[in-house]
Amino acid sequence: MTEMMATRSGLTSLLALMMGLGLGACAANLPNSNLYSSAPGNPDAGAEALLQSARVSFDTTNFFTLINPNPNLNSKNCPGGAQNFYNPLAGTYPALGTAYPTLSFDSSMTEMPAFIKNISVDITDSNSTDPSNLALDCSLFTNDPSQPATACAAMGNTSDWGGIPYYTTIDTDCTGVGPIESSDPYPSASRTLAGGVYFDIDRTQLGPNENLMLTLTYFPLTPSNDDPSGTPITTAAAAFFKVHLKQTGLNQSTLQNLSQPLFLTFLPGSSLYPTLVDTLAILAPPGGSLRTDQILLPISASASIDEIRVERVSGSAILVDATLYRLGYR
Amino acid sequence: MAARIYFQIPGTPATNPASFPSPAAGASSVQANTIYQTDSDTSPTPLATSVSSSSWPKWISSVTLGLSGSGGTSPNCAAFSTSAESAVTCGTGAPPPFCGTPVANQFRVSEYDCSYTGGGATAIGQGTGAGTDPVYIQAVFNTTNGAIGATENIMAVLQYAASSLFNAPSDPSQCFQGANGTLDASNPACADMNWNIFFKGSPSATAPTFMLLVPPTTGFLAPNTVSTTLTSYTQILTKQIIIPLAANEANMTQPTLQISRINALNVMAGTPSATTFSNICTSDSPLCLGMILYSLTFYRI
Prior knowledge:
Chain A is mainly beta.
């Protein structure tokens, strides 16, 4: 507790701890909470158990956003969760794949493979006071004037290069946002560790020795590129992401109902949600170009691994899409 | 278990590993007939010299190269290099940088020859991952009769060099010019060249993109607007491609890995300037804008 209060204000740290313990979320008020799990009672469970892979596109039509938050999670209306999942091995170029069927009990989402509990991204502007923002109640920063809404990690922000409808992290907008309070002028530690993706998996749906593969298409910005203002990206603002394997133990309903930004729930060094494999991979390629990277996920290293965290350490990037594949029951 | 295909045809010296026979004039494709062990990259031991050989890996049905489309309409686009291509240079630097193919009989794709319509050649079409793509590498796997285990996957490692004229755009929004701002990696303003990797159910099937191969390239020429001196170089790199066979869809009767050229910068006309494509690249110049393919290795994992 002392460590957490030293890194952020005491209030936000306490809230993060409460959320992690499920004490902040009104779990009892979640409609259809059981139906979002793989447990019996989910009418789509049989179909979802057969799905071997899924692709998500980090854009405003395929993720819940500020103006289109998840309508089925009590009154919090949270943004940042994946809404539509695609079969990456069916369909034609240049489509994402063939969309899985809509859930029989929730027309706002498609089926997802049973081995996936949730896919979400950090959102740092859910406390925006813009009237179009319907996700205000999902922010940990609502009514906190010391923490303005920023485009540090946001989706479809209109200030990003004319409004790219994808998930972007803008380093210069992250000053004071990250979990480390620092007045260092350069580089600013307060810009770090905010933003990224959380892939939560259900190990009960996988073999004990089974692994997964993640394919990520993204545009990491480097000094070869310009930021949204047209200024060349500095070396300090070049994209630098890490992939970690973590343990949360959280169920699907809790994960989908977490307040934003998510990184305040999963603070570095947390004993509640330990990192079991730190820095499985570093994604910091030079050249500043659109690219796809494959990352083999050795989750068989520990039965407790149930989250893949693609963590923005620093820098700016545009995330396009991600695909998770099973690599065979073992 | 592992096996390697070399993108070469027999030549000099005779001991150079070569997996393909010399294609007939005007052929639209050529299939590998020799596959090697992975014990040496310069003098590997042959595993089999015929697809019908009992020593040919049963889990690899075929490996085929697409050669610019039928009828030889763009014969120098995707082809095996000649000895003359080892002396091709580009630009007007002193000395002008090398941009050809270092060795003869090597499979390469020279974009200058894929797009140029002068001299009667026909520009080749855009790839889509279909079996009718003009330029591709296609590997078909056999999962029947226990040739490969139900929970096994394959890792393919491609050794290649990909050169573009320019680096990636400074403005990343150039890659998001599709409908409603969606991604369009095939936009020449996003990348000079676009190759995609596909994993599909059969050689003739279509599929969404499995992953991008190019962009990025492994180097770019960065022409100087003053003197057309080319200031950069292209490296040979490997790309690991993990193919999730164990996630095999029920309709994957012949799981197929296809690496297809989608399209490339093809602005040949217009106001000539020091840095336009046609003023810098020349015929048989894969290291100006194009690819040199060296080998493809398959591992069961």
